[in-house]
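Lecture 7, part 2: worked example. A protein chain together with 2M8.
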Amino acid sequence: MTGTSTGAVRAPAELWQLAVDTLESNWEHDHTVPSRTLYPHQWSWDSAFIAIGWSHVRPERAWRELASLFRAQWADGRVPHIVFNAALPVGSYFPGPEFWHSAVADAAPTAATSGLIQPPVHALAAWLAYRRAPSEQGRSELRRLYPRLLAQQRYLATHRDVAGSGLAAVVHPWESGVDNSPAWDAPMAAVPADVAVMSAYRRHDTAHADAAHRPTDLDYARYVAIVASYREQRYRDDGLADRHPWLVECPLLNAAAGAAEHALARIATVVGADPGPHRERAARITEALLRRLYDPVTGTFQPRDLRTDRLIPARTALGLMPLMLPDLPARPAATVIEEACSARFGVARRMDRPLPSHDRTAPDFEPLRYWRGPSWLNLAWLLRRGLRDHGRPDLAAGLRQSMIDLVARSGCHEYFHPDTGVGLGSPAFGWTAALLLDVLADDDPER
Ligand code: 2M8
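Predicted complex, written out as structure tokens:
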């Protein structure tokens, strides 16, 4: 890695303090915003990653973070991907609460939220927060969260098993968390949309970040069209297969659901419930991921477009994510590790560049544009867990060092240039700070 955005290389103690200060400055009464400028509300999977960070410094905040998110859980079990802060002025984020209009849905809570979900990394976060600081408060927080985490999993396994395959479908690129990944190009191209509709809206992101780094206006026209279609049906999930314009089975979201069952099995033993059903469900998800999304030719996982019933050929970092499943069998685990170590992703004991979000040898690799190439700490953190669980602590250590180097040189940015390590996007980003604390503490007794 060569250039940096600040040129500074920080010592571990200074780095720790920078991450704590970032979380403190993003704390907002009962949750942490991903970024004060770009994302001033509460985001679902951000809160889970952020709770892991808080557990190292202020455990009570980890519980408040998760509790506030789950207070906005819908009656059908979905955990909304954005919980809006009613105190913020109209126009603080696009699309805001007036666009989502969650009140149209029978299952929605009183708080204004989006109608979408994000990868369910919350059970894992709750388990890690508890392991980090096991206490009576932690046990009672786990007891409170457990039924809500169960409902979240039940929503995915019932409402979202659109193909009856044993996997959950995502209905919008925002649900995947990797919004404009090249993996979504083909299914997005099939969504009818006219870029002119964007003249009716004011994008908030491009006022705070370089437009050349963000999704395009045409992407946004399609994002808006897909939400409009779901909203018209009052965010109901019955009949999705017949009418919804965008339906995909994503390896990351489903691997997170499997990892959630493993975490719930552990939580169950603390709260006095039976861990057995969680282990069985975890095994079923792993089996379904292998059956539906593993491509034996490439040796990696690929999303399935449910509109064409075909695997999407783009080799993005999504394909590496099922390594987070501790019960992934040895053969696919080995081929995924091979993919991670290939020139496409460059994982090594000593990494000269950070993990990219997309195949760096692909013609559509874009080192500056959001999820189309830049390096993100959450993907590296998830992959690192998988490498440790699958017997490669040496590679996990290389990835860990590359994460630390990124922040040491560039600060707690949202994402980073995958060749130079220059910081991009928001300069004070919640999950970067939180996951950095976690890897610095390197304390993960139960893995
Ligand atoms: C990004 O997504 C939002 C929409 O949800 C956006 O672009 O405005 C993604 O990086 C997503 O993964 C993340 O949760 C969110 C907040 O950090 O920002």
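The mean pLDDT is 96. The pocket of 2M8 is lined by residues 34, 39, 43, 45-46, 81, 174, 177, 179, 205 (CB under 6 Å). Keep this in mind for problem set question 3.
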